[in-house]
Design a protein that fits this description.
This protein has a single domain (4-116), classed as PH-domain like (Roll), CATH 2.30.29. The protein contains 1 helix and 7 strands, in the order βββββββα. It has one helix spanning 87-116; strands at residues 7-13, 19-32, 37-44, 50-55, 63-65, 69-75, 78-84. A 7-stranded antiparallel sheet has the order 4-3-2-1-7-6-5, with helices on one face. The radius of gyration is 20 Å and the shape is globular. The model is unreliable at 107-127 (pLDDT under 50). Regulatory subunit of serine/threonine-protein phosphatase 4. This is Serine/threonine-protein phosphatase 4 regulatory subunit 3. InterPro entries: EVH1_PP4R3, PH-like_dom_sf, PP4R3-like. It comes from Mastacembelus armatus (zig-zag eel).
């Protein structure tokens, strides 16, 4: 893949609170059936192996730092970072993360509103 916009380094935070380089690859956002959602996938540029598979979750606090860095925590004490070669690629993936998170919250808000609405008796509704 020659597209440098999506070229990233994957980092994990170790026990000493230092970032460990897990490899360089290309990131994409794709629906993963097994995870039942849009996920970030990073495939190694060296051999195409999977460096990262992370479902985008509305319960995760994603942060965009500087122009080329996205960081988040997947579980207790498991922090991840994607460092992009280009700002455009970071912006593109950040936009996708925001779309997934906001659409999930939107559905929750709509469902919560529907649950709180008073019930309507259809027998009382007449058409003229």
């Amino acid at each position: 893949m020659s597209d440098t916009r999506r070229r990233v380094k994957v980092y994990t935070l170790n026990e000493d609170r230092q970032w460990d380089d897990r490899g360089t690859g290309h990131v994409s956002s794709t629906f993963v059936e097994r995870l039942k959602g849009i996920s970030l996938l990073v495939r190694a540029e060296s051999d195409g192996s999977l460096l990262l598979e992370s479902k985008i979750s509305p319960n995760t606090a994603y942060q965009k730092q500087q122009d080329t860095l996205i960081v988040w925590s997947e579980a207790d004490n498991y922090d991840l970072a994607l460092s992009f070669q280009e700002k455009a690629g970071c912006d593109e993936i950040w936009e996708k993360i925001c779309q997934v998170v906001l659409s999930s919250f939107g559905h929750c808000i709509i469902l919560n509103l529907l649950c709180c609405l008073p019930s309507v008796e259809f027998s009382a509704v007449t058409s003229d």
